[in-house]
Amino acid sequence: MAVLAMKRITICGLRQDRKAVLEEVQRQGVIEVNSVAPDNDVFRRISMPISNSEFDRSIHDSEAALEVLKTYEPEKGGLLSSFKGRALMDVARYEGFKSEMPKIQSVIRKILADSKEIAENNAEILRCRQQIDMLVPWKTLDISLDTSGTEKTAFFIGAVPGEQTLDTLYEALAEVMPVDITIFSKDKSQTCLMVICGTEKKEETSSALRSIGFVYPSVSSSRTPAAQTEQLNQSIAQLKERNAAVEEEIRSLVSYREDIKFYSDYMSIRAEKYNVTNSIPQSDHTFVLEGYIPEKEIPRLEKALQDFEVSIDVSDPLAEEDVPVALSNNAFSSSVQGVVESYSLPGKGEIDPSFLISLFYFIFFGFMLADIGIGALIFLGAGFLLLKNPHMERGLRNNVKLFMFGGISALFFGILFGSCFGDVITSVSTNFFGNPVVLKPLWLDMASNPMIVLSLALVMGIIHIYVGLGAAGYQYIRQKDYMSLIFKVLIWYVLLTGLFIKCLSMQIIMDILAGGSEPPVSAKAGQIGLIVAGVCCIIVIFMSEFRSRSWPKRILKGIYAVYGISGYLSDILSYSRLLALGLATGVISSVANMIGTMFGNGVTGVIIFVLVFLIINAINIGINTLGAYVHTNRLQYVEFFGRFYEGGGRPFEPYSIKTKYFKFKEN
Amino acid sequence: MIEFLQANMGTVLALLGAALAVSMAGVGSAKGVGFAGEAAAGVIAEDPGKFGKVMVLQLLPGTQGIYGLIIGFITLSQTGILGGDGAISIAKGLVYLCACLPIAIAGYFSAMSQGRAAAAAIGTVAKKPDQFGKAMIFPIMVETYAILALLVSILAISGAANIAF
Questions:
Q1: Domain made up of A146-216: CATH architecture
Q2: What would the pLDDT profile of A139-168 be if each residue is shown by its tens digit?
Q3: Residues of chain B whose pLDDT is less than 70?
Q4: Cβ(B81)–Cβ(B14) under 8 Å?
Q5: What is the DSSP string of A222-250?
Q6: Cut 0.90: pTM above it
Q7: Which of A39, A338, B2, B122 could form a disulfide with B39 if both were Cys (CB 3.0 to 4.6 A apart)?
Q8: ipTM computed for the complex
Q9: In sequence order, which residues have a C-beta less than 8 Å from that of residue A74 and are 6 or more positions away?
Q10: Which helix (H) or strand (E) holds B145?
Q11: Interface test with B, best of A587, A593, A629, A631 (most B CBs within 10 A)
């Protein structure tokens, strides 16, 4: 339950050990490298001969090759395979991987070249098809489109715009007669034709044709259009055959998929190592590695490096340093760590709120679902995923655990409020067996006692906010800021408690919330509560901005701080969503039961009931689990964090083995 | 005619309330989810891997329609329109109609505004997928008001059942 204490570590070693030490540190993965010392005459950063872009290209190529393999031979994997997590990396293989690399590199090159060839062939097929389309109007022409004439005659083969007839064409060419005109095809946009004239009239005919918009065809060939089409079809067939062969070749390389993934990871590991090597200062015979390390990891690192001639120096980070943040929690609280991380990591001087959140998270989550059936389904589903996938990635595992705990809580609240898929037990037993069985709630029925449940929701809100305020107080104590502790936390406890006592003494409040029962607090006590609250308000006005030196400013800010009472009020009312969402789950299930039982108790009735029940409850689970999740988050982020937590911490990013497909060791 | 009205008007008014709750909140949600869906589809065109996240954000304005359904359903079953002898007084019918109004009106407008906030949040996730947690909070802020309306509608309807007229 805590933010890990970070230390600044300096490892100084002999340059001949550099490679081995850096590899060991990377394998331990506990140091965030942060070398701030500038270069000088003795220590300077030395660039490695292999540039980063080479690693990037290797990784990029292997990813591209994997993508190609996926296109032709998708990876098998069920719906749930994404929960599986990465396989363990074979360390022995990693050590000797260098000898395997040339083979895998050539496979990658082969796959990429093949994929390029397929793309080029496809482009060529497309081009052939376009040419075939262009030849269609000429299919009855029995000479080549390029024919320009014979010894005595000139041929003009081409098209004129618009849909022309022989009559209109002869008319247009009247002054260059005699000519012979043959029309091969025509449509609205063009008329394809051949004009034959004597060689002596070639120029005149040409200019006459040009004046009516004659153009030569955009395809040319020495064969007749029919022969050319045939030829193109043959090329297409050949290209397709070639593509099939190439695809087959790619498929034959699918067995290398795991090797390529290994290669990609191997390159990522080396790229990370080279990055670090480039960034640390080195002298002629030594190197210095500086960075941050969680305090508890220091002994482990020292043990790992004991065989090397290195000096390890640990110190406290300076106050102004931007120290990275890492959280560590027990198995239960770590399930909400993702919720904290997706808000923001703790900033300077702030506590890790994961433990506090885990105390309330599941209560609210369960309250908002409050159904035995749905809770049990979520619990069993999440539990099944956890059991079946022991290698699940850490972040995902935490989230699945979150839903598992949430499911248990929903089950518990379902028993408390007597809801199992709404009223399915009652409606099934009444409709199909004619013998009503009522599921008795352990405490009371939410729908018929909404005000009592609302009061409970608001009380939970008050407790939640009090705890948040307490966390703020704890932070002030840690910072030894006792003035803030008194005037920003303790005073508010007294003020709010005074107000609540006053509320509890008022008959009108009891009429609304508790069905008109006697106020539990006497009017006199209420009076005292109000007076105490009033005094606290005055103190807040004068003291809440105790650091401000200008009195008018201080009082104005103090008045604004008193206005914060309305903030507390609206925050507490915000917890009414616990009731509203809790009711929603049961009511939707009840809608399903009511619709389902409308069709009698015959065979059709049963079938319709089952269908309606399954469909509506599936939607219900989806939408209400989402609702419970987001609204629980909101209560934490807005109402709870608003009291004490700002975040803004920088995540701890250690120099480690960052791989995509395999993991080096269990985390 | 007047007799007929006296006998049935209460049921008609209650039914009108249920119809308003379901349809107005439903239309609002449809608009909100549609608006967010347009933004979501644009993000998926660029990066299909974000489907899970943007879908969650798109769904957020959908809840108002469900709140409307809840109120409509409770009204129908309490006034006897669903499986019962639908005879309630005009005054009681009016009470039910008014009880339905909060979720009808607040549901309609909050769903549309929430849709816009959700679309903007989808834009945030498109650029910074790691800010999903924060992006989700902004549309949820809008939803609070629909929940408050739902609460008052539920309380009013369950209170109306106890009124004797």
A1: 2-Layer Sandwich (3.30)
A2: 888 888 888 778 888 888 888 888 888 888
A3: 83-86, 165
A4: yes
A5: SS-HHHHHHHHHHHHHHHHHHHHHHHHHH
A6: no
A7: B122
A8: 0.80
A9: none
A10: helix B132-160
A11: A587
A43: number of CA atoms within 13 Å, CB side? 18
- What are the angstrom distances between the C-alpha of B36 and each of A136, A307, B33, B61? 48, 59, 5, 8
Of B74, B133, B155, the CB nearest to A587: B74
What tokens were used for A464? 């939640």
Q: Specify burial of residue A195 (Cβ count, 10 A radius: 0-12, 13-18, 19+).
A: buried
Question: If DSSP states are collapsed to H, E and C, what string results for B117-142?
Answer: HHHHHHHHHHHCHHHHHHHHHHHHHH
Answer for the pair A358, A335: CB distance below 8 angstroms, yes or no: yes
What does the pLDDT look like over A387-406, one tens digit per residue? 988 888 888 899 999 999 99
Q: What residues in chain A have per-residue pLDDT under 70?
A: 1, 49-50, 78-79, 665-667
Q: Using CB atoms, which residue from B134, B141, B150 is nearest to A580?
A: B150
User: What's the pLDDT at B85?
Assistant: 65
Contact between chains at A633 and B62 (C-beta distance less than 8 A): no
Alpha-carbon torsion (A15, A17, A22, A28), positive or negative = negative
- For chain A, say whether B60 makes contact (Cβ under 8 Å): yes
Residues of chain A with CATH 3.30.70.2750: 146-216
**Number of Cβ atoms within 10 Å of the Cβ of A142:** 9
Place of tokens 């699945």: A400
Q: Contact at 8 Å (CB) between A179 and A154?
A: no
**A258 in the Ramachandran plot: left (φ > 0), alpha (ψ -120 to 50) or beta?**
alpha
Contact A626 B70 (CB under 8 A): no
Residue that has been written with the tokens 């008109």 in this structure:
A516
The token pair at B106 is: 């607040």
In this structure, are residues A32 and A291 in contact, taking their beta carbons and an 8 Å threshold?
yes
What burial letters (b/e) apply to A638-658, b meaning 16+ CB within 10 Å?
A: ebbbbbbbebebeebebbbbb
Residue with tokens 């394998």: A27
CA–CA separation, A260 and A253 (whole Å): 10
